[in-house]
Write a structure and sequence with these properties.
With about 325 residues, this protein is α/β, with parallel strands linked by helices. It has 14 helices and 14 strands. It is elongated and about 75 Å long.
């Protein structure tokens, strides 16, 4: 056994250990029909015993497929990404694909060349991205020929497949609710100033306020990725703002804590609406009022979009607002 662990284990070694043919062992390891459950268990047991590891890059060169899908995002902290990725990767696994995760750690809101270079080095069969492509990367990505799905973002402006909710509609729901609660002066805390999804939510929010006879003043629009958060909260508190809409729940929880530390009470002194409903994902009580896009169906739709592209099906960008609802919590009256 010691001798076997030191040399490179081959398919012939697995075949010799199991009494099966090399061809059968190869079919099992590459998940190609046909073999019984008993044969699969025998091969897997031998692989574990001998310490066999599949060289995915070598297999990919031979077959043209690494059976991996890259998932790209910018923020490992937000539970929205973790929860959604879990649903998506499980669906990929059911279809024989492994998932490999990449993050740019908040360096930028877009897929840039540096990130794509890292992703492409792993030779994935497809890429599902929570980030939009940078302007100079659109043609580059298309020219790779690798199926690319923009998740949680509208793909139409890039001529790419995208799965997104109606973000303006979500912003409208937030504005209508804060108005209905009787709040008078409003602020929006976004993420980046030049990201479409952030601006869509802002525009929907502002439109709802205008329709209700209120206004979102320019000095009350902030971008958390581009300013000190304490400065944003100071400006909101000093400006008498009492109705706040946040780009996502992470920002909303940060604002809730920061305003609370300044002696302001959510629901009474101010109302706050977040986005994503991560409370539901984490089985938390409804601490904040938030916008829910129907995350399970949303994630499954993203996974299915990618699987369709991998199967060679051309699909139009997907857009849906039928599951976008406001979930009432303790942060508004």
């Amino acid at each position: 056994m010691e001798h076997e662990s030191k040399k490179k284990v081959t398919l012939k070694d697995i075949a010799a250990r199991t009494g099966l043919s090399v061809n059968t062992v190869s079919r099992v390891l590459n998940k190609k029909p046909y073999y019984t459950k008993e044969v699969e268990e025998k091969v897997n047991a031998a692989c574990k015993e001998l310490g066999y590891i599949v060289d995915m890059n070598a297999s990919g060169l031979r077959s043209g497929s690494t059976h991996t899908i890259a998932i790209i995002f910018d923020d490992l902290v937000n539970p929205f990404y973790a929860f959604t990725t879990d649903i998506i990767s499980r669906r990929f696994e059911e279809k024989g694909y492994n998932s490999i995760m990449f993050s740019n750690n908040g360096r930028t809101a877009y897929v840039d060349y540096e990130l794509m270079r890292s992703v492409m080095a792993r030779k994935p069969d497809g890429i599902l991205s929570f980030l939009e492509p940078a302007a100079d990367m659109v043609e580059f990505i298309k020219n790779t020929g690798i199926p690319f799905v923009i998740f949680g973002r509208d793909g139409a402006p890039y001529g790419m497949s995208g799965v997104d909710a109606d973000e303006e509609y979500g912003g409208r729901l937030a504005g209508e609710h804060l108005l209905a609660c009787g709040y008078k002066k409003f602020a929006y805390i976004g993420s980046w100033h030049d990201v479409k999804v952030c601006l869509d939510r802002q525009h929907g929010f502002a439109a709802a306020l205008r329709q209700g006879g209120a206004e979102l003043l320019p000095e009350n629009v902030f971008y958390a990725r581009e300013a000190e958060f304490s400065d944003i909260i100071d400006a909101i508190a000093a400006g008498g703002v009492d109705g706040i809409f946040c780009f996502n729940d992470i920002i909303a929880f940060m604002a809730l804590e920061a305003l609370g530390s300044r002696g302001l009470e959510a629901g009474a002194d101010f109302g706050l609406v977040g986005y994503d409903n991560i409370q539901q994902m984490m089985r938390m009580p409804r601490i904040i009022t938030t916008i829910d896009v129907g995350i399970n169906d949303f994630a499954v739709c993203g996974a299915e979009q990618m699987l369709k592209l991998l199967a060679g099906e051309q699909t139009a960008p997907f857009r849906s607002n039928h599951r976008t609802v406001l979930v009432k919590g303790g942060s508004t009256r």
